[in-house]
Amino acid sequence: MAQKTTPATQTFVPIKEITDDVVVLQNGQLCGILLTTSVNLALKSGDEQNAVIRQFQGFLNSLDFSIQIYAQSRRYDVRPYLSYLRTLESTQHNDLMRVQLREYTEFIKTFADDVAIMKKNFFVIVPYHAAPISQGKSFIPTTFQKNTDTEVQQSFNKSKEQLNQRVTAVASGLQSMGIKSARLGSAEIIELFYHIYNPSEKGNAPRSE
What we know:
Blueprint: E1 15-19, E2 22-25, E3 29-36, H1 46-62, E4 68-75, H2 79-90, H3 95-114, E5 118-129, H4 146-176, E6 181-183, H5 186-197
Antiparallel strand pairs: 1-2, 2-3, 3-5, 3-6, 4-5
Helix pairs in contact: 2-3
Protein name: TraC-like domain-containing protein
InterPro entries: TraC-like_dom
C-alpha cells in the first residue's frame, strides 16, 4: 500500500518570492504593500465624519485598479520596553527613583501577563498583474539560465515600474486625506507574512543565512 505523503506548507502559500520590495505571487501578480496611519472617526463630529467618508469615496473612485486593505491585530510585545526600564533602573542613582522604577516595571509585566495588550496596524496592498511567466521560472536570474532569465528580469522590471506608479498614486491619494504611509521593504514584508502565518510567535522572524 502506497504511503500517503503530506503536502509541504509552501503548497498552501500563494507567494512565489519576495524581492525588490515586491511580493511575487504564483500566478505572476506583483504586489506592493503600504503601512498606513489611521483616522479615528469616533473622535470626529458628524460633519467631519461625512467629509472623511466623501474623501475616501473620491479616492477609491480615482483608482482604475483594485486595492486591498488589511487590518492586523497583534499582541504587543512589551519585553523590549521592560528591558529598557530595567536598564534605566540599573543606571539610576536616586534610591527612591530606583524603587519606583522597579515597582513600575513589575506593574507593567503583571498587567501585560493578565491583559492582552493589542497593537493594530493597517496595510494597503497594491496589485499589478504582470505578463505570464513560464512555469517554474523565478524573477531572479541564475548563472545557468542567462538568455531566458534576462527576458524574465526585463519583464519583471517593466512590471515593477507599473507597480511603483500605482503605489505612488495610492500613497498620494492617502496623503490627501491626511493618512501617512510608508512602503514596506523586502525584510519588512517577510516579517509581516511570518507573523500572519505564525500568529502566536513573538519577536522577529528568523533570518536564513
